[in-house]
Structures are given as structure tokens and as C-alpha cells.
Amino acid sequence: MFTLSRLNSGLPVLTAPTSGTDSVTVLVFAGAGSRYEVQKTRGISHFLEHMFFKGGKKYKTAAEVSMAIDAVGGSFNAFTGKEYAGYYVKIAADKVELACSVLSDMLLHAKFPEDEIEKERGVIIEEYRMYQDTPMYQAGWDFETLVYGDQPLGWDTIGTEELIRSVKQADFQRHKDELYTPDNLVATFSGNIDEKQAMKLGQEYFGAIGGKKKQDFVAVKPHTGKRITLTNKQTEQAHLVLGVEAVSSLDSDHFALKLLSVILGGSMSSRMFLNIREARGLCYYISTSTDNYLDTGLLSTRAGVDQSRLHEAISAIRHEYDVCAKDGITKEELRRAKDFLKGKITLSMEDSEERAHFFGKQQLLYPKTRDLPEYFEEIEKVELEQVNALGKNLLQTDRLRLVVIGKEKDEKKLEELIS
After folding, report:
1. pTM for the complete prediction?
2. Which long-range contacts (CB under 8 A, 24 or more apart) does 324-327 make?
3. Average pLDDT over residues 43-67
């Protein structure tokens, strides 16, 4: 399913070939997410992601970067999370060298020109405001802040206006030099490509990346603060997130948590969807999901509801949590959840971009990179008793945290609903 080799520099090159596709995705993962920031650098990881696209040695401007890929119908983008950042080009297989050329020029020769920094400040400020005006997204970030408090995992990835308006060229260069090193990167090739070709391209285009990782993130610290964040905003819907701090991606219950999430609200046949949307007509969107980090995690349900039915919706979600904690799940639910999760992963593997993400993220973050049979084996290992014990432990009243964005003003009432 995948092979792993290393360049002379030590940079891992992961190849995940697949038949039946004419595309290749080249994705470079970096252990350079926002968890690596401190107060004075909040937002630099995300800003740096933007600046990598502003031109280097061969492709001197943002226009040249985009035109090179657009000219052959490819797609490219980047993302910044809490624990990693990624840069990818998805392209026709016979154009894969162009993908490597663009990405290597960015990673090796990005110049971070001052005039582009000044222009990009405005772009990111507008991105910041866009998210503030999109409460279904903002509620999720507020939930992490509520659970983790004033530490990197509790900070929005986009950062602070202060940083966005003040960061300099030298700051970007320093951040890049400290984290974009062979021992903190993974070059992933997926799709219509084999290991021999990937290694040849890897050495030619990424072999010159050097240095040693100079910093790591600080482990999450316990946080005990408020149980509710209420933001009064004139929205058409009330947006809510109700959930708990959960186990980490390295915990023995990691796969049990994924399955519990699917059963609670991960599909259209889940408890939340059937009992709250379908049976009560309380909302259009409702879902339960997990956020997985190396030393902690989250399990949360989010929904958008009519302002007048907010309290009813919170009570209904709370009820599903209580029932799950008290009575557990059934064998049939666990079987369906396992098949659902495996099926979703199987379908995603048909896309070279998704395939690159699946394997590359594992290689960057985890002690072991599992192929699909091994990954599915971990899913199948999960026992009913394990999921029920986890649900009973996590879904306790004193662990619940709630975020609401909308016209609601009665925080005391919200406190009563989750107590």
C-alpha cells in the first residue's frame, strides 16, 4: 500500500501508489502547526503558509506560481493545523515534475518579499473577519479555547491581529529555518507513481533541504475554567457546540473514540441525526466529531438551530450523551460504525490527494504508519465493552463544555441545561 525511503539528508519519502488513476499528488507535510507558537508569534505558522506562495527563485511571483499549475489544469493549496502544515499539488501524472518544481522552489527559495507581506496582511485580516462572520466555524474554535484556555491548543490558528500587522520578513525566515527541516518533513507521493520515480524526484527537488529541527511544542496543560462560552450575535440561527475533552491520537482508546463519534453523530443513521434532526426537526445540520492531538483530544456535537429552540436542542443532545453513558451502545451499532468508517476510508483512497494525506500525516506524527489492512485491523479490534466504558467515562456532566453563538443572553439558563 505504501513504501518509505529516505533521502541522503534523512528526509522521508513516502510513496502510496494506486492503480486506475492518471493523477499524482505531491504533498509535503511539516511539523509546523500553530502548537509550535508562543504568545508573541501567534499566527505566524498560518501567515507563513500564505507567504510560501509569493514566489521564489524559479517562480518569482505569486502569479507565476499559480499560472504554472493552472496552465496544465492542476490544483494546489496548503493548510495549517495545530500540529502540522501541508503543501500540495495535484496534477496529471505526466506533469509530476512540474509539481515538484513548484513545491521545491517554495520550500527552498521562498523570499518573503516585504511588499508581499504588506499586501498579505490585509488578506489575512479579511480571512480573520470572514471566520468571525461564519459562526458555524467560529463556534468550533471557541470550543477549543473553552476547553484548553490560554495555551497554544486553545488559540485560533489564524492568530492575532497584532501579529498579523507586525510580523517581519526575518520572522518568517527564522520560523522556516527552525521547523522546515528534513527531520520534521515528509514528502508524500500518491497516485500514478512508483517508489523509484518518487525517490528520483525527491532527491532532485527536495534533497537540498537541510538543517535540524530547533523547537518543539509544549505539552498541553490541564485547564479548569468556565464551562460555557456565550457570544451574543445577531444571527439567523443559534450555533452550538457541546462536548468534552477526550483521549489523544496515541491513546489505546483512539479507535474506540472514533467509533463512538460515528455512532453518536457521524452519519445520517446516527443517534443525533435520527433523534434530533429527523424525529424532532430541530436543525438542518448536526454532527458529532473528534479532534485528535498527540496528547489530548475532543469529542463534540455541533448544530445550527432556530433561536427559539436552542434550549430544546441542547437538552436533546445532552439526553443522547446521558443515554449513551448510562446504557451504552449495541453490538449492531458498533458493527455498522466499523463498516461505515472502513467504507469511508476505502472510498477516500481513490483520490490521490486523500491518499497522500492519510499516509503522510501518519508518517509525520505517529510512531507507526499503518497501511489500510493494519488500520482496519485496529478498527476491528475495538470491543463493545471498550466503547461503553469510554462513553461512560467521557460523557459525564462535570466534563461537559458548551459554546453558543447567537441571540441567547441567559448564560445562567445554559449552565442549568448542562448541569
Report:
1. 0.96
2. 324/260, 324/263, 324/264, 324/271, 324/391, 324/395, 325/391, 325/392, 325/394, 325/395, 325/396, 326/392
3. 96
Residue 209 and residue 107 in contact, taking contact as beta carbons nearer than 8 Å: yes
Find out whether 7 and 182 touch, Cβ atoms under 8 Å. Answer: yes
pLDDT at res. 1: 86
Q: What is the pLDDT of residues 355-384, one digit of tens each?
A: 999 999 999 999 999 999 999 999 999 999
Would you say residue 18 has pLDDT above 90? yes
φ/ψ (deg, to 5) at 288: -115, 135
Tell me the helix, strand and coil percentages in the chain, rounded to 5: 50, 20, 30
Interval 139-168 mean pLDDT: 96
Question: Which residues are within 8 A (CB) of 18 and not within 5 positions of it... i.e. 6 or more apart?
Answer: 190, 191, 192, 349, 350, 352, 355
Positions annotated as catalytic residues are: 49
137 grid coordinates: 466555524
**Nearest CA-CA partner of 416 in 318, 275, 327, 272:** 318
User: Which bin fits 266, alpha (ψ -120 to 50), beta or left (φ > 0)?
Assistant: alpha
| Residue 84 CB partners (closer than 8 Å, separation 6+) | 29, 30, 31, 32, 33, 361, 364, 365
* Under 8 Å between Cβ of 341 and 323: no
The stretch 399-409 carries a mean pLDDT of 97
Lowest-confidence region among 63-67, 129-133, 175-179: 129-133
User: Degrees (nearest 5) of the Cα angle 372, 378, 381?
Assistant: 140
Query: What DSSP string runs through 163-216?
Result: HHHH--HHHHHHHHHHH-SGGGEEEEEEES--HHHHHHHHHHHHTT--------
Q: For every residue of 125-151, which 3-state class applies, written as one string?
A: HHHHHHHHCCHHHHHHHHHHHHHHCCC
Q: 152: which DSSP letter?
A: G
Q: Which domains does the chain have, with CATH numbers?
A: 3-206 (3.30.830.10), 228-417 (3.30.830.10)
| Buried b / exposed e along 235-247 (16+ C-beta atoms within 10 A) | bebbbbbbbbbbb
